[in-house]
């Protein structure tokens, strides 16, 4: 029997739009992975679409809360993450893309670290992001346990794996709720895919939060494409918005955080 790891009553927040069968399959596999791997957590599946696609019949798990927003426009990831944080009653928030899994002990250790110690304020339980395709991904979808990825790193890839990002601020990141609110959460001016996680990294660190990453890989279940070639051009408005937070005067950044923080107190 696989050892289970406590998440110490953390809230897991996932944003979702099931616009392709691959994305749907990834979501249910990751949800099953949590059930097989962890204890002591609640998952908020935050869905935005023209109509809800989340299907309770595909699993039965009372640790999941499904929240739907009718929205057929550009995917509002920042709004979904912020609303999940607002609904949460937990001191610890784990923001987890619906197609990503990290080394389970690393995730549990990160949560415990933020509860009991002050050396870090934000933790990413990974460094590089490894894309998983083909037969290996199908194996995970059928039996979503982390053990099948043991030993795979950027320097020891196997068939059906490739480096998606050498380094990434998104995927999975873990905050104390009070710190997430203090810096204003994700910037809801971002529309569509891309850039919102990096902007939060720049804003949070410039406002004094200590953001650290572990040296373990994150595994990304493939969808749409095996690489991100061309995404920067599509997400250029978001990239430019993120660059503003990296370079604006600190007084202006503090004012932005105060403005964004109002979402959580309204």
From TrEMBL:
It comes from the Bacteria. GO terms for biological process: carbohydrate metabolic process. The keyword Transferase applies. Transmembrane segments: none annotated. Pfam families: Glyco_transf_7C. One of its GO terms (molecular function) is galactosyltransferase activity. Keywords: Transferase. Residues 164-216 form the Galactosyltransferase C-terminal domain. This is Galactosyltransferase C-terminal domain-containing protein. The lineage of its organism: Bacteria, Pseudomonadati, Pseudomonadota, Betaproteobacteria, Burkholderiales.
């Amino acid at each position: 029997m696989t050892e289970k790891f406590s998440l110490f009553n953390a809230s897991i927040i996932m944003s979702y739009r099931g616009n392709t069968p691959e994305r749907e399959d990834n979501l249910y596999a990751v949800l099953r992975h949590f059930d097989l791997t962890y204890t002591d957590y609640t998952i908020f599946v935050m869905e935005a679409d023209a109509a809800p696609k989340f299907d309770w019949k595909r699993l039965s798990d009372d640790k999941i809360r499904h929240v739907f927003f009718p929205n057929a426009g550009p995917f509002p990831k920042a709004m979904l993450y912020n609303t999940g944080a607002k609904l949460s009653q937990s001191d610890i928030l784990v923001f987890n893309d619906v197609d990503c899994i990290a080394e389970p002990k690393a995730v549990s250790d990160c949560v415990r670290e933020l509860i009991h110690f002050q050396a870090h304020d934000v933790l990413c339980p990974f460094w590089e992001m490894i894309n998983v395709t083909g037969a290996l991904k199908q194996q995970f979808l059928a039996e979503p346990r982390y053990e099948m990825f043991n030993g795979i790193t950027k320097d020891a890839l196997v068939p059906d794996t490739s480096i998606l990002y050498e380094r990434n601020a998104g995927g999975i990141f873990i905050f104390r709720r009070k710190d997430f609110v203090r810096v204003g959460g994700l910037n809801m001016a971002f529309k569509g895919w891309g850039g919102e996680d990096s902007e939060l990294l720049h804003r949070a660190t410039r406002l004094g939060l200590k953001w650290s990453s572990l040296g373990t890989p994150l595994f990304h279940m493939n969808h749409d494409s095996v690489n991100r070639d061309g995404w920067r051009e599509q997400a250029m408005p978001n990239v430019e918005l993120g660059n503003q937070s990296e370079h604006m005067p600190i007084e202006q950044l503090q004012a932005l955080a105060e403005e964004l923080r109002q979402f959580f107190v309204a």
